[in-house]
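Shape matters. Shown next:

___
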Amino acid sequence: MKEKLYTIPLNDAVNANDECPFCFIERNVEQDLLDFVLGSGSSYMESDIRDLTDKYGFCREHIKKMYDYGNTLGNAWILKTHYNKIIKEMTDCFNKYTPVKVSLKDKLSGADNVTNSVSEWIRAKDRSCYICAEFDKMYERYLDTFFYLYKEDKAFKEKILTGKGFCLHHFADICEYGEKKLSEKEKKEFFPSLFEVMKKNMDRLYEDISWLIEKFDYKNKDADWKNSRDAVGRGMQKLRGSYLADPPYTQKK
């Protein structure tokens, strides 16, 4: 099947033979977004972009990656206008606060349905992130493309069925999306095939991790490492996604 512009990133991710092609895509998109927000194009100086970063803010993970990126001036500009918005919202939230009346029954039962308007406002901010929001828009298109290629491109499908599978984090999304995108007939083929791929590759990671442990036994000090040297990082990726061994992504000089 001839590649189209929108299929190239997913084909590249699968061809990378990584533990999860969607981790590969997520890293590339995230780095592109960091470049866009803080890179040499100075998007942070554009009022429409700062309106969006002010609106969404950044989650704990991405604000750390922005710091690691290294553009002090860019980060400062983003923080300045975002602080201005946050302080106004916070002041309004404080002014509207009224204590919650907690019943004796709730106190004694340790009920977890007691709310606080200030904490609710803060929790909403914790869940809001410009980079996450932009990635989510692109991610859905990549999921669409995945199912399109799986059904229409025999070479792509073969790579998936003989590949390393996915991390559990992204596999959950594939399973949910598959329920919506596939017919009942297609599901009968798709899910058992992918389950087999996942089981085989989880077993592979288990064996790699087990052999890594065995290598610490003095009796095996001269034995071949096989594929176990980086088994901890790959094993953790398989469970939760992301690349734990990656150095911080920094601004290009």
The mean pLDDT is 92. Residues 38 and 73 are 9 Å apart (CA to CA). The chain has one domain: 8-96+129-240. Residues 8-96+129-240 form one domain.
